[in-house]
């Protein structure tokens, strides 16, 4: 049997730099959680920041985050089997920030995945192996200022044509495939219609477990054919925000035997700069909310209707961005799958268009009437059809 524990976003922040730098992680992760993490055969986390001591921020919208290189000591204490770097912040400090990140991880013997000098290198999966079982892990992210292409370094982008084929190939070489998909709408607890299609396609191509990270909140899950899809895991350690959504998260424990796998969801809560186990009542509540949302998405039209409400609220923010000529936000809203989808969906299916963006009133007919020398002439498609004298 293989046991793997997966935690989501980890970012050292000023509130806990010292814990990371001085190998005092037990002060910000309680013993119960540490024991669960340590008892697994393998551990995976998503490092959602470059490690760099000099700031070289790229032009983008949203925050450029970074952590000092020596916070790697705390990461090392978690004994990661590898860190996922396929996320939207890993290039926040450009190729220089990436170089110091990779050098730092290498010099501390921490493996990583989902990043490379070009897209072919970035898409290489990570294979975990024990007792004759092989588990392939494929990591990818949506297009948000961080993705590699054939000529530039960066994170492995989700590609609707290539990613399913990559997963199919990986499945042919392994017993099970896990996909870490870094994307979806932030702070939204349900899949969008497109995200569900994308995840189901990856399942059809051989992914057994698909975990969507990046939304910073616990979402819901569905059993699709033989695959488990999790739409939102929350964070691991990321003390940036005190919104309700950021307060609860899941560790996902996966157990594989030759014939089958089992997923266990372990809830935990944010506790200042760190994380802790909830009491039994809280734990039951977190899991029951997760299950309820999971049941909700199984009913027909729920995902569409829920997303319509979300798009209705979001649309004015998107249209305002275009009015304000914020070119980095424009690029992000057109390029990134989650932003593009909600903007486009909102324009098509919602009724909250602000005045300035509402379509011009339809003319009643296609012709034009021109007046000159006391006569009125009616033109259709540029040709004079008839004239008559003005009354
Ligand atoms: Zn993210």
Mean pLDDT across every amino acid position: 93
Kindly report how far apart the N and C termini lie: 93 Å
CATH topology of the largest domain: Purple Acid Phosphatase, chain A, domain 2
Strand content: 25-35%
CATH class of the largest domain: Alpha Beta
CATH superfamily of the largest domain: Metallo-dependent phosphatases
Taken in chain order, the helices and strands follow as: EHHEHEHEEHEEEHEHEEEEEEEHHHHEEE
Structural class estimated from helices and strands: alpha/beta
Total domain modules: 3
Q: Which ligands appear in the coordinates?
A: zinc ion
Give the number of helices.
11
Uncertain residue ranges: 359-365
Radius of gyration: 25 Å
Shape: globular
- Classify the helix fraction into a percent range: 25-40%
Can you describe this structure?
The chain has 391 residues and is α/β, with parallel strands linked by helices. The protein has 3 domains: 2-298, Purple Acid Phosphatase, chain A, domain 2 (4-Layer Sandwich), CATH 3.60.21; 306-357, no CATH class; 365-391, no CATH class. The protein is built from 11 helices and 19 strands. It has helices spanning 17-21, 31-39, 72-77, 94-107, 119-122, 162-173, 193-204, 280-296, 302-323, 327-335, 337-349, and strands at 2-11, 42-47, 82-84, 112-113, 115-116, 126-130, 133-141, 154-155, 176-182, 209-213, 218-224, 227-233, 235-238, 248-256, 261-271, 274-276, 368-372, 375-380, 383-389. The strands form 4 sheets. Strands 1, 2, 3, 4, 13, 14, 15 and 16 form an 8-stranded mixed sheet that branches. The protein has a 6-stranded mixed sheet with strand order 6-7-9-10-12-11. A 3-stranded antiparallel sheet has the order 17-18-19, with no helix packed on it. A hairpin with a 2-residue loop joins strand 11 (218-224) and strand 12 (227-233). Helix 9 crosses helix 11. The longest helix has 22 residues, at 302-323. The chain starts with a strand and ends with a strand. Mean pLDDT is 93; it is low at 359-365. The chain binds zinc ion. Zinc ion is lined by residues 48, 87-88, 182, 214.
